[in-house]
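User: Please predict the structure of the protein below. I'd like the answer in structure-token form so I can feed it into my own downstream comparison script.

Assistant: Understood. Taking the following sequence of 307 residues as input:
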Amino acid sequence: MPHHPSPRRRLALAALASLAVPLLHACALTSPRRDDIVDAASGRALTSAQLLAQARAADWVLLGEQHDNLHHHAQRGAFIAALGPGTVVVTEHLQRGRRVEPGRELQSRLQAAGFDPRAWGWPLHRALYEAVLDAGLPVLGGNAPVALVRQVAREGLAAAPPELRALLDAAPLSAAAQASLDRALEEGHCGHLAAARLPATRAAQRVRDAALALALQAAGGRPGVLVAGNEHVRRDYGVPVLLRHLRPQARLLVVAFGEPGWRADAGAHTHLWRTPGVARVDPCAAFGGAPAGAEATARRARPRNSA
């Protein structure tokens, strides 16, 4: 007897098939509407359907984002919904241990689970969560508590709970990976991160990665999907490092979401999904401008707003 997808699944597949259709939104586009999906190792172009088939064969699927790009959220929502039953979503937008409960109004449901609409620029993520929750998929929190992250950023890794410290101690970064993470943190602070603050800032980033990894492991699902910034999903210093320690044989698919002209660092992700860019204010303006050369280096290296 032929299998017929559920109405929700059909809607998700239709949405995924229509990724080339323009989205109406408040953000100004910086390029024509066109998505570009690439296998990072070979450089081969893929369709969304081909990537979806690979994702269904994975144990864990990690989807990055630039936090302020609405396209990234919309595309990921349609993609995750199309994965179908059995998929469990863990998000950095919610604290570990929280989950989105059934209800009627989307924003209220998210806020009841601890979502901070101001911090995350709501309604940027509306399309993501509408698609995932309408598909009936569970959404669980994965991030470390904000207060804990701030404490670690002040005091260092010693301030982290034993569970998170133990995982980080068991899966240390290589010297090259730590150097790459340090560069990313310095660029993320527009060259204004004091050298004395770097170790604790690095510890805070890794504590968040550890919380996300443990949440994804505990969530189960096939696949388990992580929704987080591009820096968190990097294979060299992000959550995948910890997942490989937790389950060495697990199959990971790691997708960075970028914009036209952006190239991911070699080996950092398995795939790159480029969408149109959005107009944004210079993020270094909040730091009083970047030191000479720092901003140009940062722009070449990675998208902003992706930690």
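That's the full token string. Confidence is low (pLDDT under 50) at residues 1-32, 292-304.
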